[in-house]
Specification:
By secondary structure, this protein is mainly beta. It folds into two domains: about 5-75, no CATH class; about 80-180, Nucleic acid-binding proteins (OB fold (Dihydrolipoamide Acetyltransferase, E2P), Beta Barrel), CATH 2.40.50. About 10% of the residues lie in helices and about 45% in strands. It has two helices and twelve strands. It has helices at about 60-70, 135-140; strands spanning about 5-10, 15-20, 20, 35-40, 45, 55, 80-85, 90-95, 100-115, 120-130, 150-160, 165-180. The protein has a five-stranded mixed beta barrel. It has a two-stranded antiparallel sheet with strand order 1-2. The longest helix is centred in the last third of the chain and has 10 residues, at about 135-140. InterPro entries: NA-bd_OB-fold (IPR012340), Primosome_PriB/ssb (IPR000424), ssDNA-bd (IPR011344). It comes from Timema genevievae (Walking stick).
Length: about 180
Amino acid sequence: MDTEGYQLCTVLAVSVAVKLRTKAEQGRFDDVWLPSLDPRTGRGMHQHLSSNSETCLDQASVTERADLLGSSEDDNALNEVTLLGRVGGEPQKRGTEEHPVVIFSLATHTNYKYDTGEFMQRTDWHRVCIFKPSLRDTVYNYLKKGQRVYVAGRLTYGEVKDEAGNPRPTTAVVADDVIFFQS
């Protein structure tokens, strides 16, 4: 790889080689797309990745991200979820020997302020499923209840039958990446 014009940046505890552009050349960023959520703050990442004020990275638009993945304009689609929250219980092994899965619950919250000045916090619970073998084993062996984690993946929908045999819709996040934070 030709390293001229590249700078090593650490983002989300992962080192990547990123080609930086000058402010005059800001525009479409063709080399690397980075997540749009900073798990340390929960805010979008539109930030300088270098102390040099002449270089910065623009966040790619959804269309540009699709172009980077080789999609045409006619078939743009995106199913992407990023969550930052706390683990609700110890991870559990489910599935079969041929199709194992590890699941855990993840709590995220949103703070609201009413007109009266009273603050309220709403907690949402997410079911996270992990099928990737190495990630599945790591999460099962090391993730603990109450631990703060960043999850990147995709939404999936399904159906299960309750005890009475009635279909019940389900929603889950299929994780592609889980980043652990110290408790």
